[in-house]
Structures are given as structure tokens and as C-alpha cells.
Automatic annotation (TrEMBL):
Pathway: Cofactor biosynthesis; ubiquinone biosynthesis [regulation]
MF terms (GO), sorted A to Z: ATP binding; kinase activity
Keyword field contains Kinase: yes
GO BP field: ubiquinone biosynthetic process
Identification of the protein by name: 2-polyprenylphenol 6-hydroxylase
Entries under SUPFAM superfamilies matching the protein: Protein kinase-like (PK-like)
Pfam family, one: ABC1
Keyword flag Transferase: yes
Domain ABC1 atypical kinase-like: residue ranges: 95-339
UniProt KW keywords: ATP-binding, Cell inner membrane, Cell membrane, Kinase, Membrane, Nucleotide-binding, Transferase, Transmembrane, Transmembrane helix, Ubiquinone biosynthesis
Family in the record: Belongs to the protein kinase superfamily. ADCK protein kinase family.
Length: 520
């Protein structure tokens, strides 16, 4: 009860701030409210300081004034137009994650506490902050062996603040789901949970270091893309040290042009790298805005700041690839079938009718000039139309869609004439053909056989237990068919029979698949 009161007070304070910025509703929406509701808004604003910023920047400015948790909430809600509406989502894209830096001496104390040595021992040079955000700030440093380093230090006290505010976010989300059927469809509790998981990773810089390491391993053979190397010796929960990237910001298009870089090729690399990571690896950088992308002297695209990453399971990766390929080939029925096969659209709907709805958004976009075809806009409209067919919100796909909007925007600044489908096809089409072709099927069959052989010891162990139990009972006076004995026998036999049927069927299917592929 006390926590509910505390969360209610926190949300009321936040609402009061939003009201002060005129960020709760547009003037048109306020004008349509009953007089009692308008009076309530006026009361909420009473005594608040009228801020300078308003209009389209009002929401972003209000959330910035509420602190780090609300900045992250706003950035997350920018990916959820289904929750806040397209207009608010667009306004929230202007939200900048920038806060004043904390003192350098504080950062040095945090480094000493985390790494166990003074900054003067760990680094021969340690400069002032070069960037400061809601979670951490970055310093440029130099190691004793002469390497230039980027040292990211977590903002003090930020973890406790996030924990307190997350409780309020969960409280509001549960209320939405309890009182609204539409709220239950949009799954705000799941959205807050996703925000929480993202925050947990950002608040432990070892997780970001691990994400960098994983991405480096995944992309070791990829053309034109790399990430900074992690200095694990100088990394801990609150401190992340990586190589310093001395490159040209990708936002500085003129500087890239003057240096002779191929801007068209760079635009293709941005799109293809992102799709390769999402579809092939199921692991992608979920914050690929211009401030996190550089071009090094060799012309490689270098991505930094892996505090926010996204993951897709095999089902989601195949879902994404087949959807994109279906639109590339205008196979709208296949796009519809993929939704049903993934279990996203209930079976009581007609796939043909759903395909018709998909065609209604695909054809207008596909018939536009190449430089006006937007993959991100297509996915946005697709996710909007699925609501008419009772498709529950898939948070992991919304994060992907949000990232694709950003990535597409970055690529178009480099090449305004970018043809999304031509650029995407080698990655998407190649992956689809591999997964659904002979090589992919043989890999799948090999995996099934591996599961068969690794599962045999479990099956044999079950049989051994059943035999031992029977022998023990015989040695102590024969079989006792009381209720306890029967249940134990049934349980053992059920497991044995279940595993036997499963592995035999799986093995038969796998062997048949291999035989078919070898014959054809």
C-alpha cells in the first residue's frame, strides 16, 4: 500500500511537470476536453514555473527536466508510436541524452574504487570529460604503453535513481493493463520490462564491454565494419576502457567527401552491416545514430557506444528476413503466411485477407522512385496494420524497427538516392537462400542428429532407473502394485516412451531430409 502511494505521488509530480510544459496534450486536444478535465489540468499547472520551451520540443524538454530515467523512458517511447501516438513519437526523437558532466575528481575516485589503483598509475594522461550523458561520461586518456584510450565512467548514484523510477513506471503500466483492453494488447508491462533490461545492461559497463567483444567476434570477417577493442584490464562494473577512435564523424559528410571516401559505398555499408547483424547474428547495435558512428582512415565504418543492443531469436530473425524478402519480391501472401507461422496473428483470421491488407501498404511504397522507398516506413505501417488483426505487440521487433529508422536516415545523409531494396537484397536474399536451400537444410539435419545422439544418454538413464527400481522391488518381496508403485512406474515409463518416440521420430525425419537432399 505504501509503495502504491509513493508511486502515485511520483507520477503526479511527473504529470505536473509535463503539464507545466504543456506536454500532456496538444491545445486542440485540450479544447475538446470536458470543462472538469480542463479545470484539472489548470490545477495541475498551478504554481509551476512556465518554461521557455514549448511546442514540438515541449515533451522532450519536460522529460529532460525530470532526469535520467525519464530521458531513457522518452527515448524508449519514441520507438512505440502504438503507445504514445505517431505525433508524440516523432517529437520524442528530438530528445537528446545530454547532461552536465560531473567533476573529473569524482570520476577519478570511481576509477580508483573500481580498478584498485590510482588514475596516475593506470594512465599517463587523463583528460576532462569530452561527452556527458544520463548514464555516464567519457574521458580521453593514454595508457603507459602509449595507446590512446576512451574511458567511460558511470554517473554516481544513477542506479538508485533508475530503480526508484522504474517502480513508478511498472505501477503505471499495470494500471493501463488492468483498466484497458487496448492497454493489454499493447503490453505496456512487457515494454517497461524491456526498458528495465536495457537499463540493467547500461548500468553495468562490463555488459557493454561484453557486447563490444561479441560484436567484434561476429563481424571479424565483415567488409568495411569494425568496433573498438576493449581494454579488459581497465574495465569493471562502473568503468569501461576501449581504444580511442580517431576517425571522422559520419555526420560530417563534407569532411568525408573532401577525404575522398566513397559516400555511396559508405551508405550501403551502414544498411548492410545493420541487416547482417540483425538477421545473420540476431544481435545488433540498437543506438546507431550519427553520434555513434565514425569512419576511420581506412574507410571502415566504426560503431561505438554499445550500451543499448538488441537481440532476435532464430524465429524473429527468419521472420524479419522473410518479411523483407517478401516485400522485395512483392510476395504479399508469403509475408502474410510468415505472420501466421510465427504465431503473431491468431489463426481465426484469413491469411488471404491479411495479405490484402499488407498489399495495401506495400504497393504504394514500392511504386515510388527508388530514393523515396523507405524500409523503415514500410515496417512502421506493417506493425500499425497488424493491430487490426489482433497481433500483440512484439517489443523486440519494435526496437529493431526503431533502429532501422535511424540507420536508414544515416545512410540517406550519405546517399540521398539510396535504393533500399537494391542495397538490402544481397544480405536478405543471400541469407534466405542459404537458410532455405540445400546447405541450410543439411545443417538443420545435422543439428537434429546431434540432438538425437546427445539425448540418448538421458533415454538410457531413464530405462536404467526403471530397471533398477523393478529389481529392488523384486528383491524385497516381489512387485507391489500399490498406488505409489504404480505412479512411479507410470512416471518412469512415460518419460522413457516420450523420449523414445521423440528421438526416433526426429532421427527418422533427419535421415529422410539428408537422403532427399543427397538424391535431388
Amino acid at each position: 500500500m505504501f509503495s502504491e502511494i509513493r508511486h502515485s505521488i511520483a507520477l503526479l509530480r511527473a504529470g505536473r511537470t509535463l503539464a507545466a510544459y504543456d506536454a500532456l496534450m496538444t491545445p486542440e486536444q485540450i479544447a475538446q476536453l470536458p470543462w472538469a478535465a480542463r479545470l484539472g489540468l489548470s490545477i495541475a499547472k498551478f504554481g509551476t514555473h512556465k518554461p521557455e520551451k514549448g511546442g514540438e520540443m515541449a515533451v522532450a524538454a519536460a522529460l529532460s527536466s525530470l532526469g535520467p530515467s525519464y530521458i531513457k523512458l522518452g527515448q524508449f517511447l519514441a520507438t512505440r508510436p502504438d503507445l504514445v501516438g505517431p505525433r508524440r513519437a516523432f517529437e520524442l526523437k528530438a530528445l537528446q541524452d545530454r547532461l552536465p558532466p560531473f567533476p573529473t575528481e569524482t570520476a577519478k575516485n570511481i576509477i580508483r574504487e573500481n580498478l584498485g589503483s590510482p588514475v596516475d598509475v593506470l594512465f599517463t594522461e587523463f583528460g576532462p570529460p569530452v561527452a556527458a550523458a544520463s548514464i555516464a561520461q567519457v574521458h580521453k586518456a593514454r595508457s603507459p604503453d602509449g595507446r590512446e584510450l576512451a574511458v567511460k565512467v558511470l554517473r554516481p548514484g544513477v542506479g538508485k535513481r533508475f530503480a526508484a523510477d522504474l517502480g513508478s513506471f511498472y505501477f503505471a503500466a499495470r494500471l493501463m493493463e488492468h483498466f484497458s483492453a487496448e492497454g493489454r494488447r499493447l503490453r505496456p508491462v512487457a515494454a517497461v520490462h524491456m526498458l528495465e533490461q536495457s537499463m540493467k545492461q547500461e548500468l553495468d559497463l562490463r555488459m557493454e564491454a561484453a557486447a563490444l567483444s561479441e560484436m567484434a567476434q561476429n563481424t571479424a570477417g565483415d567488409p568495411g565494419f569494425r568496433v573498438p577493442k576493449v581494454d579488459w584490464e581497465r574495465t569493471s562494473r562502473d568503468v569501461l576502457t576501449t581504444e580511442w577512435i580517431d576517425g571522422t564523424p559520419i555526420a560530417d559528410v563534407e569532411a568525408l567527401r573532401v577525404q575522398g571516401f566513397d559516400l555511396v559505398k559508405l551508405g550501403d555499408t551502414v544498411i548492410q552491416s545493420f541487416l547482417r547483424h540483425a538477421i545473420r547474428d540476431g544481435f545488433f547495435h540498437a543506438d546507431m545514430h550519427q553520434g555513434n558512428l565514425f569512419v576511420d582512415r581506412s574507410g571502415n565504418l566504426v560503431a561505438v557506444d554499445f550500451g543499448i543492443v538488441g537481440r532476435l531469436g532464430p524465429k524473429e530473425s527468419m521472420f524479419l528476413a522473410e518479411i523483407l524478402y517478401g516485400f522485395i519480391t512483392r510476395n504479399y501472401l508469403r509475408v502474410s503466411e510468415v505472420h501466421f507461422e510465427a504465431g503473431y496473428v491468431p489463426r481465426h483470421h484469413d491469411p488471404a485477407v491479411f495479405a490484402q491488407a499488407i498489399r495495401s501498404i506495400g504497393e504504394p511504397i514500392m511504386d515510388r522512385p527508388a530514393n523515396q522507398i523507405s524500409m523503415a516506413r514500410l515496417l512502421t505501417q506493417l506493425f500499425e496494420i497488424t493491430a487490426q488483426f489482433d497481433m500483440q505487440t512484439q517489443p523486440q521487433l519494435l526496437l529493431l524497427q526503431k533502429t532501422m529508422v535511424v540507420v536508414e536516415g544515416v545512410a540517406r545523409t550519405l546517399n540521398p538516392d539510396l535504393n533500399m531494396w537494391v542495397t538490402a537484397e544481397p544480405v536478405v536474399g543471400g541469407w534466405i537462400k542459404r537458410q532455405l536451400g540445400p546447405a541450410g537444410k543439411l545443417e538443420e539435419a545435422a543439428g537434429s542428429l546431434h540432438q538425437l545422439f546427445t539425448g540418448l544418454p538421458v533415454m538410457l538413464e531413464d530405462a536404467k532407473r526403471a530397471t533398477t527400481m523393478l529389481a529392488d522391488m523384486a528383491a524385497t518381496g516381489g512387485l507391489r502394485l500399490d498406488r505409489e508403485t504404480t505412479e512411479r512406474l507410470a512416471q518412469a515409463q512415460s518419460r522413457h516412451a516420450r523420449w523414445t518416440r521423440f528421438w526416433l521420430a526426429l532421427g527418422a525425419i533427419s535421415l529422410a531430409a539428408i537422403a532427399i537432399k543427397l538424391i535431388t
